[in-house]
Protein: Two component transcriptional regulator, LuxR family
Organism: Micromonospora krabiensis
Amino acid sequence: MTAPAAGDDRPIRVLLADDQHLVRTGFRVILEVEDDIEVVGEAADGERAVGMTRALRPDVVLMDVEMPGVDGLEATRRITAATPPEGPAVLILTTFDRDDYLFAALRAGASGFLLKNGTPEALIEAIRVLARGDGLLAPELTRRVIATFAQPGAPSGVGGTETGDAALRELTPREREVLVLVARGASNAEIAAALHLGEATVKTHVSRVLAKLGLRDRVQAVVFAYERGVVRAGG
């Protein structure tokens, strides 16, 4: 994605998309005190969020779900469909703790999903995680995602079964090991320790796995791995 490279002093560019002006103002106040984050624009609906993403090229888009006209889920689909994997990451923020929103957001290509009742610190950390190219789910949502997508035949929207299975066969044994550890929630440092590799090498392996499988980030890799039985809940 377009996030600042290691050693780059450029701040993380964030676009706020929410139909409530007070909510956007609150997010701006929280974020702009951070030296490494810059709010580059605000959108009050999904249509404008899509247009501003194209024009402003943010690193992360904070996206509300329920907005007038084009909602946040459709806006996310348009953004992720129109940009390459290295394009902006979309972080869904919603008041509603609903499974249908969560799963629709993942299918739309969102890289993260948080509830608005979280802390400012959690929001800031989520933005930094997504800017590094990783995916993120609130801890209380992860178990529900695995429980749903680990069911046999559960559709994820993360690529067709035949296409996904063919891509899975293209992974090298080492890349498959990396996929298993990613699916179990291991960080690059933990993968490096488990496989006796350098972190830079692990990062390369993760990037190749995502590219071969046609996935945007680690969140989609988790869903993909559970759906296809590469790993199993509790295994």
About this structure: The chain has two domains: 12-137, 154-227.
